[in-house]
Here is the input.
Amino acid sequence: MVKVLMKGNEALAEAAIRAGCRYFFGYPITPQNEIPHYLSKRLPEVGGVFVQAESEIAAINMVYGAAGCGARVMTSSSSPGISLKMEGITYMAGAELPCVIVNIQRGGPGLGSIQPAQSDYFQAVKGGGHGDYKLLVLAPATIQEMVNLMGKAFDLADEYRNPVMILGDGILGQMMEAVELPEQKDLGKLPDKPWATTGAKGRAPNLINSLYLDASELEKHNHHLQRKYERMAKEMLWEEYKTDGADIVLVGYGSSARIARAVVDKARAEGIKAGLFRPISLFPFPKPALQAACAQAKNVLTVEMSMGQLVEDVRYNLEFKVPVHFYGRAGGMVPTTRDVMEEVKRIVSNGEGGGTV
Amino acid sequence: MITVFERPAALTSAKTHYCPGCTHGIIHRLVAEVIDELGIREETIGVSPVGCSVLAYNYFNIDMQEAAHGRAPAVATGIKRVFPRKVVFTYQGDGDLASIGIGEIVHAAARGEKFTTIFVNNAIYGMTGGQMAPTTILGQESMTSPDGRNPATQGYPIRVAEMLATLEGAVYIARVSVHNPQEVARAKKAIKTAFELQIAGKGFSLVEVLSSCPTNWGYTPTESLKWIADKMIPVYPLGVKKPLEEEKS
Amino acid sequence: MLNVEFDEERCKGCEICTSVCPKNIVVMADRLNAMGYHPATVIEQEKCISCSFCARMCPDVVITVRKEERK
Here is the structure.
């Protein structure tokens, strides 16, 4: 198989086509615009539909309608746009509709910037909209992984009847790497969706809905959803790099993990036993693997492009047994290996970092 | 004996939750009759709104999706783009369509999405307890315009049919009423025309139906019908606002 | 078979049908139905002209209308 050089956003878009996605509804926002640019050209070529909606709110509700018809459908946006989509996302979680949502994160809060960030972690993994719900959240760190996770995202969405989020950032969206693309998925072999609204021919009507006026029925529905989120535990994904016997384990996802990985090599070269734990599924969070990787560690350091979000989950999932430090940059600033390395040295020499222990 | 009037098959046997005399029931029935007459019950997908008709999915014997407040036209866009040959309609009230969802309806019409919207205008928010709607007429009392809608502070009612009729993507826009048997017959004809144009693949169609809200208006059901005729129609004139050009000639 | 039949258990007693009958034969019953409403009913079936005005205006689809088949 030949490798092609592709921009992250375009690779994601092509991977969606290969995964059998034929419907895209979205609204322009930087830094994810290459996704709609690519799909507006590519989808009609394969008999698909591209609609530029009047807003992110409209776009996600178009996704709702299409997903309710059983289609493989996606939208993409960046942080402020994802906030707008939260209404539709919670409705889709409530109505158990599969879809893929791409968030190529940029700096916030508010209009923020158009530079890369990772400050939507909480919004992605804790639900984001109202009500008790979870998204499956996948965080690629390379363009190849973006491609691979896109296919997986559509399969997981269908399997669990749940929205799946690909949580990227402006760096991953804009950078180019050589990728190997999968074969086109056979559209005839996509999963059956007998619950979809296709016209009530020869059967009782189907309903796509998240309204349960009876409190006990809604509680029952919530229990049903919760059991589903628990079942998702088997989808945990992570990568470890030199964590065996590491004194300090760096934890980061996406672009930050690439920086952290370079720091691990630098630290090892200077005789510091450092390792990297990279969660790939942010929900479900790979708790057992993180605990195992950090069992012998004297310190843990999260590296993030935020003011400290992943760090909370790392502390929680390590059950506060290991000191967890935090190093982050925000607003579109990217951590440098030199600064993270200094942080590692400070922690190793005094057991103290920039964050609280 | 032959039956000249009976419950349409496109309605379920469920009793509605609507207040006594609320004309939502008539409008539901008209939509169901049209679905039956066109023989499209198994080919139709409906979208219910948020508001009094949120539970419309319990009453139509067809596949349905329940949309977020105001988003029914976006949901219908998603459905119709996946199934261009199915018949798709939204059923929306004035708060849903003309307030929170005004963006969605305008752009669905502008794109010429090939579905039909049944827009029920009763000039008030019913489900939430009688607040002022975007279509509340000047001087009309509501829970949030207790001294009557005052244009100086609360602005003017929106004439949705006339506004949407300016858009090229809309092929059929009509305003009808259900305040007497003759108007009910005309309303049904308009709904049927809208569905037929959708089936012909012509473009976006919308039928605005003036409807009553005895509970929140504070009138009896029969007084409410008179209020439609006396107070609403002068503000919201009935008629076809946008015919197809070729149909005109 | 009756010309006009009311499924009285579905009636919410709104009285709209009584106001549109050209023969004034639709009246409200004294009894209450299971929902607690006085249902509409027809007293003089023979006067019914099967115009369907009552049925057309009924928000609760209570009414079925029939007529003699023309030979």
Notes: Chain A is about 40% helix and 20% strand. Chain A touches chain B at residues 23, 25, 49, 51, 53-55, 57-59, 61-71, 73, 87-88, 91, 95, 197-202, 205-211 (CB under 8 Å).
